[in-house]
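Continuing from the previous page of notes. For each protein in this section, the sequence appears first, followed by its structure tokens. Read the first protein now.
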Amino acid sequence: MGTKEGLVEMRVRTIDEATSVLKLMENLSFDQVLDDEEKMDILMTDSQNFKLILEEIDEPHRMMLGIINPDQADLLYLAINDPEGIDATLPYQTVEFLKKLGITLEKAVVTDKVNMTHRTILTLRKEDGSVMEMPLTLFDALVVATVAKVPFYVREELLEVDRPDFAKSVPNGDIVLLRMMPMKALKREMDMAIRRENYEYAELIKREMATRKEGEEKEDEEEDYQEID
């Protein structure tokens, strides 16, 4: 079963370039792209990123999106399609080392999200039956779970898309994607949305930026308070 005790089992659906260079350039020459400040900004910011889409194994096939770099994309692709081809990498050697110690990998769970970063726990069981938990980044845990052939779960609440009433026409994918964007990319996305008169999306971006700014101010206040203590 894909859902167990509030956990949703996921699999890798796609690993794609965040920006299609061919689509971006369309019928323009390279010199024309160089003269187009907006396209050059997109090209320089996004061309080195890949979109990682995880999909719920069972219905309704909810999705989760992450951004990874080209090296990570290559590593994950090999982990899925040719695990032996990454035998010299740290994730592969970690799995093999744990096996030699008699430690069994049981599952990986994305537990929460802090400052735009998903935190993931890898559950291990020793020979005496005791359980250990290893915190990892989402990407590292995904590669290790893939190599070890153990389930990869996400807490169900992390798959819920918080959609304001005014943004009913904005696709779920766009809402998830903008929450992964850095602040600079959000500002660029806002300008593009306004130029295209997509005001619902622009308002959504505006609120996302305000939420992040409020979070940063709250963190600064907590740091100042700790310094006073």
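Done with the first. The second protein uses the same format. Note its length before scrolling.
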Amino acid sequence: MKRRVKTANRIMLAAEALFAEQGFTETTMRQITTAADVNLAAVNYHFRSKQGLVNAVCEKLMEPLCTEIEVALADRMLDSTKITLDESLEILMRALLNVSQVNTHSLSVFMRLLELAYMKNQEELREFFIVEYLPRLKLLLECVRADSAPMEDDEFFWRLHFLLGSIVFTLSNYHMLLTFKDKGLEDKAEIDCILHRMLPVLVAGLQARGEKTYFSRI
């Protein structure tokens, strides 16, 4: 039994490293089996398919993220005061920071997973996200909505995806983004600094005037 667990873990670690470096679609099963030093039968035994392996990696990262968010919200709700948008997004940022500490590849893989879920041929992965994890994120989304600017549901939907897109792009490419910086600028590349800098931008985007909320004409 222990040997089987070790084999499965070795496959997942090899896959994560390749997914982080190359992406999901570009990584082949042959590359995974070579990196993990196993045969294809071992991958099929533990995960059934490449998609099953992708789902397993997703579960490995989403479970601690959702648990961190649920625990933080439960603790905060012991205080009866309203949860602000800053607090809600900070809870999300702290959960992402914890994901980054799983291993050296975890945050990059997680961001690539979110990118992958938007591709038109990834219905199975999207369904996995929606069925397994959307209910666990519902309370966080309700808190975000409650302190965002008044807006209709369709506009809130798009703003959420603008927020998600900003997070995914920045965290997927932050090493590359550093190469664009002026060499004389202070270098604070740590993930926690990046997340801290993103927070006011995301809050401002959600609290900006709604599309159908017009300026006063008095």
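What the second structure shows: The domain at 1-48 is CATH 1.10.10.60 (Arc Repressor Mutant, subunit A). The longest helix spans residues 50-76. We return to this in next week's lecture.
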